[in-house]
Amino acid sequence: MTTTTLAVLVPLLPFLGAVAGLLLGRTVPGLVRPLAVLPTLVALALAVLVAARHGGGADIDSATELTPTGSVPIELALHVDGFAALVAVLVGVVATCVQIYSTGYLRDDPRYPSYAALVSLFTSAMLLVVYSGDLMVLLVGWEIMGICSYFLVGHYWETPEARAASLKAFLVTKLGDVPFLIGLFALAVDAGSFRITTVLATVAGGGLDHPTLIALLLLAGVAGKSAQFPLHTWLPDAMAGPTPVSALIHAATMVAAGVYFVARLLPVFAASSAALVVLAVMAAVTMAGSALAALAQDDIKRVLAYSTIGQLGYLTGALAVGDRGAAVFHLLSHGAFKALLFLGAGVIIHAAGTNSLAAMSRMKGLRDRVPDAFWTMTVALLALAAIPPFSGFFSKEAVLGAAEHAATGHSETAPTAAGWIVLVAGLLTALLTAAYATRLWLLAFNGKGPEAPDHGRQPITMTAVLWVLAVPSLAFGLTVGVLPDWFDGHSLTPTLTTSVLGTGFALVGGLVTYGAWRHTTALAVRHPMGAVAVDSGADAGQVEAEAIATHAPAYGDVAAAHDPADPGRLLLGPLHRHAAVGFHLDAVYAALFVRPVQAAARLVRFLDREVVDTYVRGAGTAPRWLGAAVRRAQTGNVQTYLSALLAGTVVLAVAAVLVATAGA
Amino acid sequence: MHLAYPAVLAALLFCVGLYGVLARRNAILVLMSVELMLNAVNLNLVAFDVWLRDALHSGQALTLFTIAIAAAEIGIGLAIVLAVYRNRGSSAVDELRDTAEGPDDPDDDAEGVAAEEPAPAQKAEAAA
Q1: Which residues of B touch A631 (CB under 8 A)?
Q2: Which residue among A638, A643, A646 sits closest to B93, beta carbon to beta carbon?
Q3: Which of A621, A632, A639, A646 should we substitute to test contact with B (largest number of B Cβ atoms within 10 Å)?
Q4: Residue range A380-395, pLDDT digits in tens
Q5: Which of A143, A149, A360, B102 is the most exposed place for a label (fewest CB within 10 A)?
Q6: Which of A510, A286, A288 is nearest to A381 (CA)?
Q7: pTM score of the predicted model
Q8: Any chain B CB within 8 A of the CB of A638?
C-alpha cells in the first residue's frame, strides 16, 4: 500500500469502528470492547508506519476535489509533514491507552457502548484534523470534536454538574468557532483556496490583504478550542466528565488541536506582528493565571485541568515567538505526561473514593494502595515540573529557549516584545508549575491520618497503560537531537541560560511548597475533614461520578475546600480565595453575558406569552363570543325561526322593490 | 270579474294562513294554516291564468300539481304529528324544543369522556 492509502486509513478506521460500535453496541454486547480498542490500535500502527515512511523527509501531499463550489473549491486533501506524522502518532498512542483504560474504568457502565463509539469518533475527527490538507475538511473534524466533547463531558448527565459543564464547553468553544469560521473564509478569499499548501504559498508571496484581521479571527477559535484566556473557563468544568475523557480530550488531543492549527498556519500569523503580540499576551495571562488557580484547587482533576491550560499557554507562547518546532515538541511530551497524569488521577480517585486533595491528605498509605499510579505519576509530575532529565524539561526548555531567542532579537519573524512577554511569564509559570505539582504529590501521596480504604488491586487494564505512558514521559527528551529533522530545522536542545534559570525556578517552587507543606501538615491532624469516601465496590466511573457530585455538598464548593492544612493556602495568602474560583472570571461572564441573555430570554418569553399570544387567543375568543350570541337565537321554537324568515323575506322584498323603483 | 277580487281574497287567505303558521300552538292547526296558504296560491294561479287568457292554461295545470303535492304533504305531516303526540302526549309546537341550545355551553369534551367511560366496564362484563 502507498503511504497515501495508509494515511487515509488512519482516520477512517476509528470512524468505521465508531459506526459499527453505535450500530452493534446493543445487539452484540460482546463486540463492543474489540470494536472500541482494535480500530484505534490499528490506526496507531498505521500512523507509526506513515511516520516511519515519512521519516522526516519530503511532505506527502495528495488531493481530490470533493465538491465544485463555483468559487473556492473544497478538496479532500492530505498533507502529511513532520508535524502531522508525529502528532498523529501521539493521538494514536493516547487514544489507544484511553480505550484500553476505559474497558476497566467504565466496566459496569450501561452506556459504555455509546461512550466507546464516541471516543472512537473523536479519535477519528482528531486524526482528520491532523492529516487534513484542506481547511474546510479540517473544520469538519474540528466541529466533530466539539460535539463529541459535548457528549462525553455530559456522560454522567444525571448530575447537574455534568449537564452544565457539557453545555458550557459547547457554548464557549462555539463562541470562538464563529469568528474562526469567518477567519477561514477571509483567508480562503485572500488566498483563493482552502488548500493549506496554497495558502502558505500565498502567504510566502505576500498575497494576504488583511493578515492581522484574519489572524485575530482565527485566534478566537484557537483560544476557544485550546482553552486560552479568556475562553478557557470551560476546561476546568469539563472535568465533570469521566477521567479517560479528560485524559484524551481535555489534556492530550482536542485542546492541542488549536495549537496544532496555529503551528500549521504559523506563516499566516507571523505575517502580522500584532497578532503575534496578542498571542504572546494571551499565552502569558493564561500561563500565569492558570498556574495560580491550579495552586488553589481542591479537586485533583481540576488541578490537572488548570495545569493543562497553563501548559497550552506554553505552546501558544512558543508559537508567539515563531518557533513551531518547540511548540509541537512540547505538545507531544505534554500530551504523553498529561494523559498519564489524568489516567493516574482516575486510579487514585477510584482507590481513595474521593476527588478531594484535602480528603486524600488525611489518608495514610494511599501510595501503597496504588503503587503503579504512585510511581508513574511521580514521573509525570517531575516531567510537568520540568525537572531534568524527564521529557517535560527538554520540551519546556525548547520553548523558553525560543522565547529567549526572540527576546534577544535573533528571530526574524517574532517581535522582541513577544519574546520578553513569553520568557518572563514562562519562567514565572515554571516556578508555579513546580509548586502545584509538588503540592499535588505531597497531598495525594503523603497523607497522614486513618488508613486509606483497601479495595484490592486496580484492574490491570487501568494500571498497564500508566506504565506505557510513563515511557515517553521519562525518555521522550532523548529524541531532542532527531526532532529538528522532522520540524523546521531549528535546534531544540536546551540552551544553558534558560535551562539553569528554568530548572532553578522549578526547584525553588518545589522546595518552597515542600517547606509550606511541612509547616501546614501538622495542622492536618488537628483539622479533620469530613472525607466523603464513596464505597468503591462499584466500577471506577461510578465512584468518580459520585465523588464529583458529593464534593460541593461536603466542602461547600465544587473547586475548593476550606482546608487550613493546604500549603497552597499558605503560599497564596489572600490571593487563595480568588484563585480558587478562577479569579472570578465565571462571575464576570455571568454578569456580562449570562444575565443579559437570561433577561433577553425573559423579555422574549413575555413578548411571546403576553403580546403575540394575545392576538392568537383573541382570534379564538371573538368567534366564540359571536357564536354564543348567535346560539341564543337557537330557541328550538320552529315558529320563531319562521317569523325571522318572514321578517328577512319582507326586508329583502322591500329592498328589492326600492332598488327597482330607484333604478327606474 | 275584475282581477282585484280574487287577488285580495288570495292575499287575505295567505295572511290568515301565515298568522296560523306563526301563531297557533296546535300542530294540526298549523298544518291547516299551511293548507290555507297553499290554496291562496292556487287561487292566484287560477285567477291570473284566466286574466292572461293563457292558451295552454299552465296556471290551472300547476294548480293541479299543487293540490296533489299538498295532499302528500298533509299526509306525511299528520303522520308526524300523530307520532309526536303518541310519544309526548301533546302536539303543541312550542313545546317541541329539543334542538334548542341549553343555557350553558354543552361541553363536547365532557360528553366525550362520559361516553368513553363505560366502555372498559362493558369490556369487563363481556370478559366475565
Answers
A1: 101
A2: A638
A3: A639
A4: 888 888 888 888 888 8
A5: B102
A6: A510
A7: 0.77
A8: yes
